[in-house]
TrEMBL record:
Belongs to the queuine tRNA-ribosyltransferase family. It catalyses: 7-aminomethyl-7-carbaguanine + guanosine(34) in tRNA = 7-aminomethyl-7-carbaguanosine(34) in tRNA + guanine. GO terms for cellular component: cytosol. This is Queuine tRNA-ribosyltransferase. InterPro entries: ArchSynthase1/Queuine_TRR (IPR050076), TGT (IPR004803), TGT-like_sf (IPR036511), tRNA_ribo_trans-like (IPR002616). Pathway: tRNA modification; tRNA-queuosine biosynthesis. One of its GO terms (molecular function) is tRNA-guanosine(34) queuine transglycosylase activity. Catalyzes the base-exchange of a guanine (G) residue with the queuine precursor 7-aminomethyl-7-deazaguanine (PreQ1) at position 34 (anticodon wobble position) in tRNAs with GU(N) anticodons (tRNA-Asp, -Asn, -His and -Tyr). Catalysis occurs through a double-displacement mechanism. The nucleophile active site attacks the C1' of nucleotide 34 to detach the guanine base from the RNA, forming a covalent enzyme-RNA intermediate. The proton acceptor active site deprotonates the incoming PreQ1, allowing a nucleophilic attack on the C1' of the ribose to form the product. The active site is at residues 89, 271. Residues 10-368 form the tRNA-guanine(15) transglycosylase-like domain. It comes from Acetanaerobacterium elongatum. Residues 252-258 are annotated as: RNA binding. The gene is tgt.
Length: 378
């Protein structure tokens, strides 16, 4: 259930209540693809990094260790040691981005595993069954992810197929949630809006899928290489057609600036591998811009990564030490960097929520959009 607390322009401050806890929105979902944040971060660490939601991936967990094994272990929450909300991606994006020799039919997609090449079939029912085995809080509908840009006619056919698949996802989830031995009988279903960068397709598709009265709605197929201006244009185009009483999720986004811009257009939920991936290469986010910790100028810098940050890393370690760890190829360097970046992202969402509550979000946006994606001057 979504409760709208305050609006500032189109920016929304809300609460999203689930069987595994209430999420304060706007919120960033920390990406634990295979049940862990890359960089040596555990679910226990996340509790100290202000994480509200973990995002795990259906495709990866199905291939390894297997969703049936996770079910036998009591479900994903018990398996990874996280009691809060978990969203599982449907696997659709990975099927189309990682798999080789895939073949799309109305029934679903046959593809080869990127791990060992074995042939696998996944369709709406299979995706729902896998996610039911995982017992996640929120299951994403199985959709077709097309290249962007894609020809208009193919995009239209893809939207129609994704809509038909969505009906099948809903029917299968209803059946699974009613079973006596279902791990999470309160599992939610989010539908995904597609249509590439074609405004009419996006609107038509959103108008169609809202008729299913799902638990939430996502905008998919963006942040895949198109200019940011196109992403913002599509969000602004689709937003008026998204239910005001349901959470809105922009998939795979993004940079701190992307997030602020999307919040200003009415988005509530985000996910992206950027904070952990960039951290593993020494790129640290701060409210003064990006710090490339590997730079020689930080060799004897006694300051923390960010002097205004109270994360466990900035409280205890210097830039010089973290740079040394990276140069010495010590795993701890990546771990500390990822911890800082996740804390920054979750703190960014806190400050966004506070700004909306105070009616100062536009000033917040004007202050931080020009600097957050730029290199820190010092």
């Amino acid at each position: 259930m979504y409760k709208l607390i305050k609006k500032d322009g189109k920016a929304r401050r809300g609460e999203f209540t689930t069987v595994h806890g209430t999420v304060q929105t706007p919120a960033f979902m920390n990406v634990a693809t295979a049940g862990a944040i890359k960089g040596g971060i555990s679910s226990y660490d996340l509790k100290n990094l202000k994480c509200q939601v973990e995002l795990c991936n259906t495709y990866h967990l199905h291939l390894r260790p297997g969703d049936t094994l996770i079910r036998e272990m009591g479900g994903l929450h018990r398996f990874i040691g996280w009691a809060g909300p978990i969203l599982t991606d449907s696997g659709g994006f990975q099927v189309f981005s990682l798999a080789q020799l895939r073949k799309i039919k109305e029934e679903g997609v046959t593809f080869q595993s990127h791990i060992d090449g074995r042939k696998i079939f996944m369709g709406p029912e299979e995706s729902m069954r896998i996610q039911s085995n995982l017992g996640s809080t929120i299951a994403m509908a199985f959709d077709e992810c097309v290249e962007n840009p894609a020809p208009y006619e193919y995009s239209k056919k893809s939207c129609d197929r994704t809509e038909r698949w969505l009906y099948r996802c809903k029917d299968e989830m209803t059946r699974l949630n009613a079973l006596h031995d279902t791990i999470n009988p309160n599992q939610m279903l989010f539908g995904i809006n597609q249509g590439c960068v074609y405004e009419d397709l996006r609107v038509q598709h959103m108008e169609s899928i809202v008729k299913l009265d799902l638990d939430g709605y996502a905008i998919g197929g963006l942040a895949v290489g198109e200019p940011a201006v196109d992403m913002y244009r599509i969000i602004s185009t689709v937003e008026p057609y998204m239910p005001a009483d349901k959470p809105r999720y922009l998939m795979g986004v993004g940079t701190p600036v992307n997030i602020i811009e999307a919040v200003s257009r009415g988005v509530d939920l985000f996910d992206c591998v950027m904070p952990s991936r960039n951290a593993r290469h020494g790129h640290m986010f701060t409210f003064n811009g990006i710090v490339n910790i590997i730079n020689a100028k930080y060799t004897n810098d006694e300051r923390p990564i960010a002097e205004d940050c109270d994360c466990p890393v900035c409280k205890n370690h210097s830039r010089a030490y973290i740079r040394h760890l990276f140069k010495a190829n010590e795993m701890l360097g990546m771990r500390l960097a990822v911890m800082h970046n996740l804390y920054f992202y979750n703190t960014l969402m806190e400050r966004i929520r506070e700004a909306i509550e105070e009616g100062t979000f536009e000033q917040f946006k004007e202050r931080y959009v020009p600097i957050l994606d730029k290199r820190c001057k010092d």
